[in-house]
Amino acid sequence: MTPASRPPTRILDTPITFLKGVGERRAEAFRRLGVLNARDLLLHIPHRYEDASTVRAINALRIGEDATVIGTVISKGVLPTRKGLRIFQAVVQDTSGFIEVSWPGQPFLDRSINKGDVLLLSGTVRFYHGRQLMPREWVNLGADDSGTAEGRVLAVYPATEGLSFKMIRSIIDKHLDALVPAVDEYLPADLLHATGLPGIQDALRRVHRPASVAEAISGRNRLAYDELLCVHLLQRRANAIARQARRGIAFTNRRELTSKLKSSLPWELTGAQVRATREIVADMTSPQRMHRLLQGDVGSGKTIVALFACCLALENGYQAAVMAPTELLAEQHFRTFSRLLAPLGVEPVLVTGSMTAKARRAAAARLAEAGPVLAVGTHALVQEGTMFANLGLAVIDEQHRFGVEQRATLGEKGGAPDVLLMSATPIPRSLALTLYGDLDVSVLDERPPGRQPITTALRGESARDKVFEFVEGQLAAGRQAYLVYPIIEESDKIALKAATTAYEALASGPFAHRRVALLHGRLSGDEKDAIMRSFRDGELDLLVSTTVIEVGIDVPNATVMVIEHPERFGLSQLHQLRGRVGRGAEESFCILLGDQGAESRERLRHVVDTEDGFEIARADLRLRGMGDLFGKQQSGLPTFRIADPVRDEELSEMARAAAERLLAGDSTLSSAANRGLQKTLTGRYGRALELFRVG
Ligand code: ADP
Ligand code: MG
Description:
Number of helices: 24
Bound molecules: adenosine-5'-diphosphate, magnesium ion
Radius of gyration: 30 Å
Distance between the termini: 35 Å
Mean pLDDT: 87
Shape: flat
Number of strands: 20
């Protein structure tokens, strides 16, 4: 059977190799792009568009303006400069005239741009022995494309070796008219209508053959919406099924310990804390297991919310456990809890690896007896030897610092405890719902009142001495300071050497009379804790550190942080680091030190200008994508081909609401109106098959 004579939907299953104009070699390249069949080909959409409909005549260009032109290369070559920089230059011509185009530092272009090639170029016109164009963006349309791009929008596809975007474009163009009619609309009519987005066939034509950029965008948005809708449907359905399977403890809101805690707090809870606490209480009093993520900026007061949850478990006669990623943080929580719970007559138990065997045994003995006990500790809580008689609640602080297995293990201790995860990488709620749809999410988006703002400044090398004088001033006033070096990889020997050298220079130079220590990831856990402890106890003035300074550690007397090479950090990371100061009543400062290029200065502005972690995370996501913000733990998060859950926040929110409505009325999507959607979902996502299986 030839593709054309297959039944319509089968056409879409045609392996890419069998499409006319593809062949085995190109099919291989297509597979690398994730395109296996005709359906994938339709969904291989352009990643950008060159708007050739706004092309200008070359002879009309003026110095200083920004313009797009199309011209044929009439001469080219590589010029050396006196500074050793090699410049590729070409002269391009259209019917009106010609202009010189210059690519400094890109001599290799000489191999890919040939005389006779037609180029589409956008950039600024400058004066350099005459008019010269510096292309910001450009596309080689090839030798035979003369004129065809004029007056329309040019689609540029993600390409790969052995398969140029031009080839992809021509293959898609060849098959578009035959393939598109085979795609049935799968969104229910009323839903589609409510979105205001184009129908599926229309959308596919618009993305591949747009008459204007606006048209291309609307088509792309429809496809992105579909993808987001599918992910939300999957997540919600998985969540609902998991809930049914997760019979848990139905705690009773006795308002004994929780009310006492509330009335003994030295301050009022913020509105956000009240809201989050209510959400958690609702989860814990329901018969299903809680599986909730509490996220909030550094200093937003997550700990106290967790403590309310613990009290609810305790007043029901259950045990609660709070796990922190480091000994120091565990100790800190232990102190805080001991202090806040003293008026209630509750004494928590500390469980860490460095405790004496005797202390460890005593703690284990208390946990082995059924009864209300609050355990605070490190991953020692989930190691052998720690048994919980009746764990009712597991809280995991700074959850991203733990491996997936460690998190899971605490949740499996005892019967079926409720689980509360806490994270200080705040991301917009809608994004959290897209990424962690199988968790419920509470957000602390409000700061406790009376917090001193942190003044953040960006200073160049010329100000280095002044910056250190300023730090000295703070130390002289009895405060403490951090100096942070960017070692992200602990194996980075060169960076470690730089930090060590800098430490030695400071400790023997400007801060020779101060108590200075160096903290880095290569030290043993004990050594690290010992240094942090002496810093906390005021036995050190200046802590030179890599990024290991513990998340969540509270040293209120530290009022200034200097960060070297801030350009090497992500914005959210800088914000987290900065959160180590500004924890006391004194005014605090964060100084980003080092000379910066314009681009990096622009990026760092986000940290200088705002203290809102959500806003910063958003900027970080926009600039660097999700991978950097979530690092290795990204595995397990959904992946997207077309949609970008950050940039498409609004679409995602629309899709989330739609998924909720659809599933509320028809949880397996098996009604006549939803069938098409169910089929598309199960066809595209393997996981969907089991989630939406009917009957
Ligand atoms: P994080 O969310 O970073 O874990 P913490 O729970 O450590 O923040 O809280 C930061 C500080 O704010 C703590 O010193 C805590 O006692 C204080 N705090 C928490 N909630 C409030 C509140 N409602 N009013 C005033 N201070 C608060
Ligand atoms: Mg915390």
